[in-house]
Design a protein that fits this description.
Strand content of chain A: 15-25%
Distance between the termini of chain A: 51 Å
Strand content of chain B: 5-15%
Helix content of chain B: 40-55%
Number of strands of chain B: 7
Number of domains of chain A: 2
Number of domains of chain B: 2
CATH architecture of the largest domain in chain B: 3-Layer(aba) Sandwich
Order of helices and strands of chain B: HHEHHHHEHEEEHHEHEHHHH
Strand order of the largest sheet of chain B: 1-2-3-7-6
Strand order of the largest sheet of chain A: 3-2-4-5-7-6-12
Number of strands of chain A: 14
Distance between the termini of chain B: 55 Å
Bound molecules: thiamine diphosphate, magnesium ion
Largest sheet of chain B: 5 strands, parallel
Number of helices of chain A: 12
Order of helices and strands of chain A: EHEHEHEHHEHEHEEEEHEEHEHEHH
CATH topology of the largest domain in chain A: Rossmann fold
Structural class of chain A: alpha/beta
Oligomer: heterotetramer
């Protein structure tokens, strides 16, 4: 086994390189992904290695990026489209939900859409408007798509390859705030059997309460679990990885054990993933639940200016407060209770 | 009325004469009378299919039907210019194109009878199934062309869309991509003068063909009711694409003589006089007149063609009525190509739910 | 009070006419809404009365319809945009979620976006692809928007006027399958105080279980309540009307009483409104609930071909089955139980 | 290099001479040397603001800054053609336009310092706040123009966008609407040759100005580094719109001499030689040379202008540092203009949550 320490961004880059080496039908498309290597350098060096036809800088038109990807998939290619930032995916919404998602069903299975859509997402980086959105819930509601997110370099490396290898279209959400975090990556962990992409991962085991999260906030969940443990609370942390479909088996197994759950994400609460997770858990674990599932999420507001994002985004204190509520105890910090 | 032959390529005039003055004659020197008779047959059959499908709709066998009445030459002329290996991405009205691609007529009906979302396997005929989102398919065609270019093949992709579609951002974006990458794609716009109730003048103050130059591609305006002229200009565009010189925009000037769909009532928004005027330029009558003048179309030949058309129509009707209703559980098929835990669970659930009714008494009727 | 029997579609037409009469800044925009009066004739006669500048047929470009509406709102108009069918709203998604929804917040309140977006939605009409979608959940997750739907002529007449009068952008979802249903309409019920648009309506009271629905399926819920009553079950039916924000006070009041709830909608289950409603109810009524909230919804599939829609769409039997599940009893029809 | 004056309108050459041969001279007969000195000052001040803001970013006071270096003439020339009542819808780089509209420089910084999503009240200056979604504002401008047309006012709306933006469907759709309805709107495209790392040739094989004709509106290509020429062509376009003759598309050929934003490193994708070549056509140097040749720009005048620029820069810096951080609960403001039960509940919740900390001990540090 070759293992290497690398950042999450480099792990995606390595995964893309591996996927392109393994299958010459894999092509990358996007704005500034060629010479520049992408504004986050995720595709750095790939155009040098694979040429301009396989790493295509496209004109500025997101609908066209996805729409031509549909045609390329028709022609037997496996396009990997980069959307430069979360907030720029909406012009492509029609092509994604009406075409990419439905072409396989529309043609009764004759045409497959092995398209991967890479989307750097989320806040915590002090960015300007439209650069910190969390649009994942829109896509989990659009039947025909798969939606995944990763929280660490190993998963980044493995899951991007699984997403590309999937014959179904996959939205791959990359947590920008974690791009530069390093971790060990087994470079040979790819290719053999699909499971990282489809399954949730238990990050740390616990008995008293479960935290379900994904992407950029898994780390905050882990930190909350550490602090809670100093207060004698044993927290199980689950990293969903697959946002659509959700691995409810893994989630329900945990909640049946702990009886309590806190769901953490950056996106707005209303209609966010937390709603589906809470509803799905309640359906499956009603008699095991000691408290209603607690949601700790971004507020129902457009992403705020950078100086305010720390209030908007779930942080350690808000996750701990969520844990306290799930545990039916007063806020462990202030001793106060809010309902 | 943009019927002035000076404004577009025309090889056979509305009254069926053939002045042979156009440079585009060079593209159809191989087309003899026998072949023109074959195109005449195409158009007659296609119109017959259209009439039969409309009748089936009126009789409640189809939920809806989008007639192509009046656009036969635009569709047959362009589709017959293609090679088998080429690939078509069309909208919902290209029943004539589908016929020329060899798609059984009954397959056209599945969508409108509601038995499936599409009627055929695109790879079997080199034609994608109908696209309802206006303009979306122009991007698919451009992407397909990029794929062909990557593979160094000489396949060309052709996309059909309407005058109304030119306003959608997707069509402009497709022209940008096609031009930038010199994609081997032909943009075939059927300007049938109407987008449901909106006249083409609402979409553009300028001739649509002029859109092409600004996007860096040649544009050709053709008499869309002249099957030979359409064949000629499409051949030229295909040849340009095939030799690596990139996309072409063709505006085929034609007219939607029927309603937008069988659900539409065009008397609400357009003058009968306009229709009458366009009837003078009917694509079938015109070619018929020309072929009668050359002697290629005799009553006997015409009779045989009508018989063919009647046979196709009869088959169509029989095929339509025989289309099986889909099974309830087919709901869950082909949404994904690989197992999906969420949907698999819903399917299991629903299968068990349905099974209950097999043993169950009938529910009393609701009083609503 | 002038009361009149009219169809739901005529009621919207009458509401539009009234709004245009009351305020000359109200203008209508859309495809085929002028001479043709819209493919559903909702705007019939309005161009004759108010002229081409106030009832504008637009070129075929949904993003432009919404984008120019933003500019018109900037200029002090109150645009009412018709999207011809549910499935054609996606090309406008970017302008709706990034511009219409956020302009007020972006400009710190300086600019208001009193834009109404009318969307005929849902299935049950045997239509072709893209003509039966239920996209409401996408918009309830987009902060800055309000989302409403109506189920009867009176609400149609009142709520369309309230939506137009609102200074916030409102998505107004019209249930196509109910367009031709007739009902009494008080023509003077408009203008005086805003409440229909913001509040849920108790359609029929009951003790044993609550059904929450909206739009085209309220009628199915009512029918299910009738059948259930013949089986001795007392069902309370709630018509949400406001989908964003949800009137959780009304919903929770009912569920606290009944302890059981079935949520019914046409849209896909995953990430649909049912998820938010179930999660919100569980959060508010955890200790009153005798059973997990039950969702009876469309499946997680692209809307199927017309011949299959009757299986996809929640119908009387499926709602009754949902009621049985919520009541912890075997299926009242077959006596069988599915978990 | 498209710097050939034959290809665009130019009144002052790159080396500062004024041949006075262009027909567009007619549009600027009222512009005397004093006014040109004022435009020179505009450009110097605008560049000084840009330099100061870049420095503030380097010093960590701003998260980001999008420099306009090199585009001063395009922005000042066009903005100074406007009347107060006109309305601008721009992107994120139009700091020079904002300056000319009278917007205090410090207001430009709020977005980039992250204290708010926009810096000013659009109605106070006739200019919408910056738009980040590429091309979206062109539709807003078109809609605003339709509103002005409805109101029979003679206000014109002007939209600024880049060369890259021309590929976005929204821009094409805006041109369709503007043309169809003859909206009083000016499409002002700053072709600065780059969209981040992508050269303009990737967006279009054709000169961007040629897009105009196909959409049925006049197009003008202007030397975007010649403030006087830009003033002239913009005046013409405004006049056309004001008299009811509809939209115009202006392509101002200029160059982004700096990085895309302070986060960008252009050495990764473009040649130093290209930058050096464009430095020869600097808009400020050119006007300076011309005004020195007429005697209007003396060392003394230049010194006064520099003082003004320094003062503005000093105020900008002081203003930036004084920008207050927003209050946490302002998160919930202005999302809706009317009460909203969902958000009001979240606000209440969060207010109580925050209040807890006022009395609470500090949480122990996390070991991560
Ligand atoms: C994105 C989208 N918007 C609206 C519609 C509704 N619609 C169906 S056909 C049509 C008119 C299309 O006109 P045109 O492009 O000229 O094609 P034609 O019907 O004349 O063949 C419209 C508006 C649609 N299908 N897709
Ligand atoms: C819809 C959308 N896609 C992508 C981006 C990311 N982006 C920001 S600026 C830019 C380049 C724009 O180039 P151009 O239009 O030439 O304007 P310039 O920056 O040169 O002024 C890109 C791709 C965006 N802001 N919005
Ligand atoms: Mg048409
Ligand atoms: Mg540029």
């Amino acid at each position: 086994m070759t293992s290497q320490v690398m950042t999450l961004s480099k792990a995606i880059n390595a995964g893309l390189r591996q996927a392109m080496t393994d299958d010459d039908r894999v092509i990358l498309m996007g704005e500034d992904i060629g010479k520049l290597g992408g504004v986050y350098r995720i595709t750095e060096g790939l155009q040098d290695s694979f040429g301009e036809r396989r790493v295509m800088d496209t004109p500025l038109a997101e609908s066209a990026i996805l729409g031509t990807a549909v045609g390329l998939a028709y022609a037997g290619f496996r396009p990997v489209c980069e959307i430069q930032f979360d907030g720029f995916i909406y012009p492509a919404f029609d092509q994604i939900v009406s075409q990419v998602a439905r072409m396989h069903a529309r043609t009764a299975g004759a045409v497959t859409m092995p398209i991967t859509i890479r989307v750097p997402f989320g806040g915590g980086i002090g960015a300007a408007e439209h650069h910190s959105d969390s649009p994942e819930a829109y896509f989990m509601h659009a039947s025909g798509l798969r939606v995944v997110s990763v929280s660490n370099p190993q998963d980044a490396y493995t899951v991007i390859q699984e997403a590309i290898a999937s014959n179904d279209p996959v939205l791959f959400f990359e947590p920008k705030r974690r791009y530069h975090v390093k971790g060990d990556v087994e470079l040979e962990s790819s290719g053999q059997g699909r499971n990282a992409m489809d399954t949730a991962r238990v990050v740390s085991e616990g008995r008293d309460v479960t935290i379900v999260s994904y992407g950029g906030l898994v780390q905050v969940a882990v930190e909350a679990a550490q602090v809670a443990s100093t207060e004698g609370v044993s927290v199980e942390v689950i990293d969903l990885r697959s946002l659509a479909p959700i691995d409810f088996e893994a989630v329900a197994n945990s909640v049946r054990k702990t009886g309590r759950v806190v769901i953490v994400h950056e996106a707005a609460e209303s209609g966010g993933l937390g709603a589906e997770i809470a509803a799905g858990i309640t359906e499956r674990c009603f008699y095991s639940l000691n408290h209603a599932p607690v949601r700790v999420t971004g507020f129902d507001i457009p992403f705020p200016p950078a100086k305010l994002e720390k209030y908007h985004l779930p942080d350690l204190d808000r996750v701990l407060d969520g844990l306290d509520r799930a545990l039916d105890r007063p806020n462990s910090l202030s001793g106060l209770e809010i309902s | 009325m943009p019927d002035d032959a000076a404004e577009f390529v025309q090889l056979i005039t509305a009254d069926g004469s053939r002045p042979s003055t156009s440079l585009f004659e060079a593209w159809v020197t191989d087309i003899d009378d026998a072949q023109l008779v074959a195109r005449y047959e195409d158009m007659v059959v296609v119109r017959r299919i259209d009439v039969e499908a409309t009748a089936l709709q009126r009789q409640g066998q189809l939920a809806l039907w989008p007639p192509l009445l009046g656009q036969e030459a635009a569709q047959v002329g362009s589709a017959r210019a293609l090679e088998d290996k080429d690939f078509v991405f069309a909208s919902y009205r290209e029943n004539g194109v589908a016929y020329c691609r060899g798609i059984p007529a009954v397959d056209l009906l599945k969508v409108w009878r509601g038995t499936s979302q599409s009627g055929w396997n695109p790879y079997d005929f080199g034609m994608a199934t109908p696209q309802i989102i206006i303009g979306a398919q122009t991007l698919h065609a451009t992407g397909y062309a990029l794929g062909m270019q990557n593979d160094r093949s000489d396949v060309v992709s052709v996309t059909y869309f309407g005058d109304g579609a030119t306003s959608e951002g997707d069509v402009s974006e497709a022209m940008v991509f096609a031009s930038t990458f010199k994609a081997p794609v032909v943009f075939f716009c059927q300007n049938n003068h109407w987008a449901i109730s909106e006249p083409v003048g609402l979409q553009s103050k300028e001739q649509l063909v002029n859109r092409a130059a600004g996007f860096g591609m040649p544009g050709v305006r053709v008499d869309g009711n002249d099957v030979l002229a359409v064949l000629a200009v499409t051949r030229e565009a295909l040849e340009r694409a095939r030799r690596g010189d990139g996309p072409t925009f063709i505006e085929a000037v034609t007219y939607r003589m029927g309603p937008h769909t069988t659900a539409d009532d065009p008397t609400r928004y357009r003058e009968p006089a306009e229709l009458a005027e366009w009837a003078q330029r009917d694509p079938i009558a015109r070619l018929g007149a020309y072929l009668r003048s050359t002697g290629a179309l005799t009553d006997e030949v015409a009779g045989t063609i009508d018989e063919t058309a009647d046979r196709v129509a009869a088959e169509l009707r029989a095929g339509c009525l025989a289309l099986p209703d889909p099974e309830p559980l087919s709901l869950f098929e082909h949404v994904y190509s690989e197992p999906h835990r969420g949907l698999d669970r819903q399917r299991d659930h629903y299968a068990r739910y349905l099974a209950m009714f097999e043993t169950a008494p009938t529910r009393p009727a609701v009083q609503s």
